[in-house]
Design a protein that fits this description.
Order of helices and strands: HEHHEHHHHHHHHHHHEEHHHHHHHHH
Strand order of the largest sheet: 1-2
Shape: elongated
Number of strands: 4
Number of domains: 1
Structural class: mainly alpha
Length: 427
């Protein structure tokens, strides 16, 4: 066979460059853009449900739009669900997370933040519930009521944090909290994925160049042997598809180490489980399972009303001890009337729930308390079986990997036509 060596070597060099571009742009497809960008197509939404399932998975199709959103942010809610089912639920319960946030430290923080608010809280409630009486009440008696509430504050707060701890598994659903957080903030998922697999993602781009070059050599032989113009574009499809397929395989397969004589096959993600676990723990502790988010979930999540009712009931004995006893307070009870006085105590208890849980949303305090959550998740993540660890990151995008492979095939086809236009048919 008479080989044109310049033409021959141009093929693997070209396929190497195309392979690099395929994986580089493939990573862009994974993560960008964070939000969907596209345009509405009249009538598409009506027929989208009858399209093949794979087509329905393309971002925007089910909404009747053509465009693109990064695969990872588009599947943010799904990734949150998988993260809980595959890993977080095996690492710790809501109670474990709360315990590692140190309830005693939380109570001290609430008291320090809430104490200055006590006079305003009592004054506000009394003006609302019985403004004429509170206006006419001697200042020393007002001060007595306020001071009793202030002295009872540590006991009140301790009741709150204890009740939260006793019922945290019923009040906080980590899965709902994670899914809701990921869905509202898909950029968090992108940060986790990029930071967690930074090294592997860089290597995937390099693999694109290497695999493209190696796969281009047999393509060059076929091109020189048959001299057919259609061969390079058609084989470019196979090279582009295979380049992405091999890159994904090396990152995620095999999860358990396989030895073949002196050679070792092991997924790149699995090899770095120890190091990557700390990265994963950092992001979950700083962005997902935080005291700030737990506090918000307690008050505004699916069980928010139940949280308020339960904590108000827990607060009543302490509120009663604060404003329900003593000569001065007895005078208040007589003047206001027992029924009205009890409604005042109930109002104090109900409003105190919001006041006492508001400091949980303190971002700076939440960040300080996150250190132990990070250590807990990293430790439990390292203990996960390798297949579970690898699947935790791959499962969310596994169904969409075909989009990356199809993207590689299209670029391989285009690369074949470009090479044909520049160098012509092998001869």
């Amino acid at each position: 066979m008479d080989i044109n060596w310049v033409h021959f070597w141009s093929v693997p060099i070209f396929t190497a460059i195309i392979g690099w571009l395929i994986n580089w742009t493939g990573l862009m497809m994974l993560f960008a853009p964070i939000q969907f960008h596209g345009f509405k197509v009249p009538g598409l939404k009506d027929v989208a449900g009858s399209l093949p399932r794979k087509v329905q998975e393309v971002p925007g199709i089910l909404r009747g739009s053509l465009g693109w959103q990064g695969i990872v942010p588009a599947r943010a809610a799904k990734m949150g669900s998988i993260a809980v089912d595959k890993a977080l639920s095996k690492m710790a319960t809501a109670g474990d997370f709360y315990e590692h946030l140190e309830p005693d430290a939380i109570a001290e923080h609430i008291v320090s933040v809430f104490a200055p608010e006590v006079p305003m809280l009592v004054d506000e409630i009394m003006w609302r519930e019985h403004p004429r009486f509170w206006r006419d009440l001697p200042r020393p008696v007002r001060a007595t009521v306020i001071e009793r509430v202030r002295r009872q504050l540590p006991s009140i707060v301790r009741n709150v944090t204890t009740e939260i701890g006793n019922h945290i598994d019923q009040l906080v659903d980590p899965k709902i909290m994670v899914i809701d957080n990921f869905e509202k903030n898909p950029s968090i998922v992108v940060r986790i994925f990029k930071d967690f697999g930074r090294r592997e993602l860089r290597m995937m781009v390099v693999f694109g160049f290497v695999f493209g070059f190696l796969l281009g050599i047999p393509v060059a032989f076929v091109d020189q042997l048959f001299h057919q113009g259609w061969l390079l574009p058609v084989m470019g499809i196979a090279v582009g598809w295979t380049t992405n397929l091999l890159g994904m395989w090396l990152i995620f397969e095999p999860a358990n180490e396989i030895r073949l004589g002196p050679f070792k096959l092991h997924a790149l993600f699995a090899r770095r489980q120890w190091e990557a676990s700390d990265v994963y723990g950092k992001h979950i502790a700083m962005d997902v399972i935080t005291l700030e988010r737990i506090g918000d979930h307690l008050l505004n999540g699916p069980s928010g009303d139940r949280t308020r009712q339960m904590l108000a009931a827990a607060l009543m004995p302490a509120i009663d001890a604060a404003v329900g006893r003593g000569p001065a307070v007895g005078a208040v009870r007589i003047a206001v009337g027992p029924r009205k006085f009890d409604s005042i105590k109930t109002s104090v208890a109900q409003q105190a729930v919001d006041y006492t849980l508001t400091p949980l949303r303190d971002a700076a305090f939440s960040e300080r308390q996150s250190v132990k959550i990070r250590a807990l998740i990293a430790e439990r993540c390292r203990a996960l079986p390798a297949p579970v660890f690898v699947d935790m990151m791959r499962a969310a995008i596994k169904e969409d990997e075909w989009l990356l492979y199809a993207h590689g095939a299209i670029m391989g086809l285009a690369g074949g036509f470009i090479h044909l236009a520049i160098f012509g048919v092998g001869r």
